[in-house]
Amino acid sequence: MLKVDAIVNPAHPSLRAGEGLCEIIHNRAGKNLETYCRMLGEHEYDDAVITPAFNLPHCKNVIHACAPYWVNYNCLCSKEPRAPMKVGPRLFCRQQTHHITFMYLQYNDMK
């Protein structure tokens, strides 16, 4: 098993458990992650927030990257999306994060 300092969670701006990978991360981390995220409140699309990993084995933190939300090729953001990697490195340095896992999932809504 790979040990990392942080994993990146594709999060909704509410930071609450959603569906897919986000739901899996929240379920594995336990109720403390949901409680912690609730205390942090709502964020903007393109923001990134770092939290403890709680019950997640093999990592210390979860980086919640609030990815833009797209429906029928239209971005439902209040501002133009920017690259998440512009936000991430600042968080990594502050938390002395050296080993990060990005889990990539692609979803095509072709209805």
Task: Tell me what you see in this structure.
The chain is an alpha/beta fold and 111 residues long. The N and C termini lie far apart (38 Å). 24% of the residues lie in helices and 22% in strands. The protein is built from three helices and six strands, in the order βααββββαβ. The protein has a single domain (6-102), classed as 3-Layer(aba) Sandwich (Leucine Aminopeptidase, subunit E, domain 1).
Biggest sheet descriptor: 4 strands, mixed
- The name of the CATH superfamily reads Leucine Aminopeptidase, subunit E, domain 1
Please report the first level of CATH classification, the CATH class. Answer: Alpha Beta
Mean pLDDT: 76
SSE pattern, N- to C-terminal: EHHEEEEHE
Shape-level CATH architecture: 3-Layer(aba) Sandwich
Structural class: alpha/beta
The Cα radius of gyration reads 14 Å
Count every beta strand, where a strand is a DSSP E run of 2 or more residues. Answer: 6
How many domains? The number is 1
How many DSSP helices? 3
- Beta-strand residue fraction: 15-25%
Kindly report the CATH topology. Answer: Leucine Aminopeptidase, subunit E, domain 1
